[in-house]
Amino acid sequence: MLTYIKESFEELKNNVTLPSRSESSNLMVVVAVFSILFALATWGVDSVFNEAIQLYFNNILN
Chain-centre distance of CA 47, in angstroms? Predict the structure, then answer.
């Protein structure tokens, strides 16, 4: 386990590079846009299912 941790830190020091500030900003915008789109899609599907379930139970109860 100790060897694994030591090798992991070596990997981080030698092989991992951080993106530039401008690239990070661009990627942040992309993630934010897709997060909003996914949230809107989830809200839409939830609304459709909500209406369908309400219609179903209203027809059963009436």
Answer: 20
Q: Where are the alpha helices (DSSP H) in the chain?
A: 2-15, 21-61
| Domain ranges within the chain, ordered by starting residue | 20-62
Predicted model pTM:
0.65
CB-based contacts of 18, cutoff 8 Å, min separation 6: 24
Picking from 35, 31, 33, the residue whose alpha carbon sits closest to that of residue 43 is 35
Task: Quick: pLDDT tens for 3-59.
Answer: 999 999 999 999 989 899 999 999 999 999 999 999 999 999 999 999 999 999 998
